[in-house]
Amino acid sequence: MRREQATPWEITREGDIVRIEFIANPESQDLLDLLDALDTLENSGLRMFVMQRAELLLSTADVREGAEFARSLANQPRRIAVVAPGTITYGISRIFKVFRESEETRLEVFRDLDEARAWLLS
User: What residues in the chain have per-residue pLDDT under 70?
Assistant: First the structure.
């Protein structure tokens, strides 16, 4: 059953970077909904997903589905940084990287927010 509450993320801008901060653990459908929302944003070529207050607790099948869906969208970012200090989320994010990267989009996973930001802007 789908929960009827606010989204588990907040979207803000840091200059040229679209920052998506997770404030609760997302479910698979939450991520698909988020990708839909990001597809409508203009100037979102640099994206930073911040998982400091939440964990990704998804199956490999869910991760693959999300990555394939993301690759099918019209608004493709140039760079994606994932900030995942937790061991589980770091590992799942690395799996997502394998499925998600393309010629148009580079993705890196970091444990540190400042390193992620520096890479995005380099």
Answer: 1-5
| CA pair distance 41, 74, nearest whole angstrom | 11
Specify the pLDDT at position 50: 98
- Say what the pTM is: 0.93
Taking only the tens place, the pLDDT of each residue in 11-29 is 999 999 999 999 999 999 9
Q: Kindly provide the b/e burial profile for residues 15-44, where b requires at least 16 CB atoms within 10 angstroms of the residue's own CB.
A: eebbbbbbeeebeeebbbbbbeebeeeeeb
DSSP string, 62-81: HHHHHHHHHHHSS---SEEE
Backbone angles phi, psi at 52, to 5 degrees: -80, -25
Distance (Å, whole) CA 20 – CA 46: 11
